[in-house]
Design a protein that fits this description.
The chain is α/β, with parallel strands linked by helices and 280 residues long. Helix content is 41%, strand content 25%. It has eleven helices and 13 strands. The longest helix has 16 residues, at 120-135.
């Protein structure tokens, strides 16, 4: 059986990597003043943060239509028997549901929608693994079983400079955002049951980042090898420095750097920082 791997743009996988591993990407969009831009296709991350700084109103985001999924799956059905479609958490977006609905509308190809229950480059961990296994000719059920195994060790924590965007976009409860604003804390956030919730309230960004490093240390204390990714909201130099600091501490962890692109950046805002990891 020949299996295709599909993901959405919020995995923020470089185009060269997608091409190398035969990964198909369907974009979400960001909307500024009624102008819609498909992320990773029609707007760069640099342009997005520039526009956001100058925007009067917070941009909004939209998921791909079911029709876009149907079109992609029909095209893939000419060369593939199955599709594993891996998407950002169903708790913060209807993208996965769109893929699932489209899967019931196409013939000659079996669609396996997969909820990463997370987003960004940590979602990409699943996508890369699935793509490598698909290239090796593994059956879809075997790939899904491996993704479920990865889910047991995947963790991600992030910090935002301001909780307002998350609250306005409905991705964080008003109470949590209000408390953060009143106390001037930098809560460490994470995903629980597919939605974003505060993990711990910490006074400064530096202390919050140090706490995330502690959490990584607790997770990787066994003999196993891990891969991790530093994710930044237009703070590349800060991300590079943080990566170097952690590389010196954790020789059994392979680190990479990624970014919060337009759709996720809309909700987290500029200056957000995150770290995710998985056991190899």
């Amino acid at each position: 059986m020949k299996t295709a791997v599909v993901t959405d743009s919020t995995a923020y996988l470089p185009k060269e990597l997608r091409e190398k591993l035969n990964i198909y990407m369907i974009p979400l969009s960001v909307v500024f003043d009624h102008e819609t831009y498909k992320e990773e296709v029609e707007i760069t991350t640099e342009d997005f943060y520039e526009k956001m700084r100058n925007a009067k109103d917070l941009p909004t985001t939209t998921q791909p239509s079911t029709g876009e999924f149907v079109e992609l799956f029909e095209k893939l059905s000419k060369d593939y028997d199955a599709v594993i479609s891996i998407h950002l958490s169903s708790g913060i977006s209807g993208t996965l549901q769109g893929a699932a609905t489209a899967g019931t509308m196409v013939e000659n190809i079996k669609v396996y929608p997969y909820d990463s229950e997370i987003s960004c480059r940590v979602q990409g961990f699943y996508v890369i693994e699935a793509a490598k296994m698909a290239l090796e000719g593994k059956e879809p059920e075997e790939i899904i079983a491996r993704l479920d195994e990865m889910k047991k060790s995947i963790r991600a924590y992030f910090i935002v400079d301001d909780l307002t965007n998350l609250q306005k976009g409905g991705r964080l409860s008003g109470a949590a955002a209000l408390i953060g604003g009143l106390l001037q804390v930098k809560p460490v956030l994470h995903f629980v049951d597919k939605v974003i919730v505060p993990f711990e309230k910490i006074r400064t960004k530096k202390k919050a980042m140090n706490r995330i490093v502690e959490l990584l240390g607790e997770a990787v204390s066994d003999e196993a090898e891990y891969q991790a990714v530093v994710i930044h909201g237009n703070r590349e130099e800060e991300a590079i420095a943080w990566k170097k600091e952690m590389e010196a501490k954790f020789p059994n962890v392979e680190f990479d750097i990624s970014y919060f692109g337009p759709v996720i950046g809309t909700h987290l805002g500029e200056g957000a920082m995150g770290l995710g990891w998985v056991k190899k």
